[in-house]
Specification:
Blueprint: H1 4-23, H2 27-56, H3 62-92, H4 97-104, H5 136-143
Length: 144
């Protein structure tokens, strides 16, 4: 078999993994995409090991040995990654990467004291407690 076939398949797998990492919002799907990229690298390692062992009369099979190490590291990585994702899911209730990033950057919907960030105790209507309307400048500031 030619070296081109596994190399093209590995390139397609790697590109699919990159797309999954960049486009997905779920942390588990991102981890699966990383595993897909690692499997593409493993396929390349084995394919080039077979190709080089035929041409150089090498009997060491270092590409296959490196693939076994990569599989072991990938298994440890997915175990730790899933543990982290489950801990974050239990703590925050979501595994959406964008929502997790927003909460770490301080873009929470509630303020630090439990208010909604408008200065009131969760009320967002424009009327004061005595029923009068605030001036237009205060209204624009409250909605901004």
């Amino acid at each position: 078999m030619h070296l081109v076939y596994p190399a093209v398949l590995a390139a397609l797998l790697f590109c699919t993994g990159i797309y999954g990492v960049l486009a997905r919002r779920n942390a588990i799907l991102v981890l699966m995409s990383v595993e897909l990229m690692l499997n593409a690298v493993n396929l390349n390692l084995v394919a080039f090991d077979v190709w080089l062992s035929r041409t150089a009369e090498e009997k060491l099979h270092s590409g296959q040995a490196l693939t076994l190490f990569t599989i072991a590291i990938a298994a440890a990585e997915i175990g730790i990654g899933l543990a982290i994702v489950l801990a974050v899911y239990r703590g925050r209730g979501t595994s959406d990467i964008d929502r997790l990033r927003d909460t770490t950057e301080g873009h929470e919907t509630d303020g630090p004291d439990g208010t909604d960030g408008l200065g009131g105790a969760g009320t967002s209507d424009a009327a004061d407690s005595d029923g009068t309307e605030p001036p237009a400048a205060e209204k624009a500031e409250a909605t901004a």
